[in-house]
Amino acid sequence: MDRAKLHSSIQNCVSLSFARSGGAGGQNVNKVNTKVHAAIYISQLEGLTETEVALLRIKLANSINAEDQLFIDVDDQRFQERNREIALERLEAKIAAACHIQKKRRATKPTKASRERRLLGKKIKARIKKDRAWKY
Fold this sequence. Notes:
The chain is of the alpha+beta class. The protein has four helices and three strands. It has a three-stranded antiparallel β-sheet, with helices on one face. The termini are far apart.
């Protein structure tokens, strides 16, 4: 995945709509459209392979509507411009996280030295507890 290409793709293809948001802000929330609803068609995203797009559709199925749009709502701040920036950052982060393919874990064994350190620690702890015991 080319992160720079994805960033520019999101900037160009995202559609933003605004609404009144609740929460902090007093009377301001009743008259100013600060909530941002950002949506982007998955097919318009550039810089992703077909495998990454398939992963995106699987992992983000709950955030994709019937029109194949990935969407996000942000009403964290009192200012529309800041909410717009947050929405774009979150969209990019969400897409990048969903496209990330984790490496397969290779099982390893503890080294001889680490096993010995563990056993030594257990012996020391046992000795401390034994010395703490009630003596007649």
